[in-house]
From TrEMBL:
It comes from the Bacteria. Acetyl-CoA binds at residue 146. It holds the Pfam family Hexapep. InterPro entries: AcTrfase_PglD-like (IPR020019), Hexapep (IPR001451), Hexapep_transf_CS (IPR018357), PglD_N (IPR041561), Trans_hexapeptide_repeat (IPR050179), Trimer_LpxA-like_sf (IPR011004). This is Acetyltransferase. It comes from Anoxybacillus kestanbolensis.
Length: 208
């Protein structure tokens, strides 16, 4: 198995660690979180602050990295802060996920159990496709977005950078959700949502 470094040790990290275990492709060699002030080793795994990531990589140049943090803004800041080449970030896909051969998935993206990513979908880097989400054909999901559990993105949907689609929301065909916008859980999106907005309801309405 290939070595992997997990950045973050909160709730989302627990799920990512389970995914890594189930995939049998990687072995966790370090878990980095800023709650640690210095590097320590326990049960063969290194624990330390995020700033120590380059030291860990110096020990094992073959190691991959995943940023296992659910907050889109924090995940983006860390990706920019560590300044590591894209090819060093692992793309993690749960064995139960169904991925079209024509789909394109970026580095650092995590696809959770029972997800479907259909034909010609394009998923950016450091995206979370959470449990049971459906990404239909010809969708585009930008970097740092989070598609929550049981979301359905129907065909030709565009989700821009950093957007968060809440659990069980549905986005109808051809709709665009703007950068860093938030769609509330259970919403049905039937109109485009501009950048940096919040929208909730069935059908959605803008909150600001």
């Amino acid at each position: 198995m290939d070595p992997i470094v997990v950045i973050g040790e909160g709730g989302h990290s627990k799920v990512v660690q389970d995914l890594i275990s189930s995939s049998e492709c990687y072995q966790i060699i370090a878990i980095l979180d800023d709650k640690y002030e210095e590097m320590v080793e326990k049960n063969g795994i290194l624990y330390g602050p995020i700033s120590s990531v380059h030291d860990v990589l110096a020990r094992d140049g073959c190691a991959k990295i995943v940023i296992a943090i659910g907050n889109n803004h924090v995940r983006a800041r860390i990706a920019q802060r560590v300044r590591i080449d894209d090819e060093k970030f692992a793309t993690l896909i749960h064995p139960s996920a169904v991925i079209s051969p024509s789909a394109c998935i970026g580095s650092g993206t995590v696809i959770m159990p029972n997800c479907v990513v259909n034909a010609a979908a394009k998923i950016g880097s450091h995206v979370i496709i959470n449990t049971g989400a459906i990404i239909e054909h010809d969708n585009y999901v930008g970097d740092y977005a989070h598609i929550s559990p049981n979301v359905t993105l129907t065909g030709n949907v565009t989700i821009e950078e950093g957007a968060h689609i809440g659990a069980s929301a549905t986005v109808i065909p051809g709709i665009k959700v703007g950068k860093w916008s938030i769609v509330g859980a259970g919403s049905v999106v039937i109109r485009d949502i501009p950048d940096f907005k919040k929208a909730v309801g069935c059908p959605t309405r803008l909150l600001d």
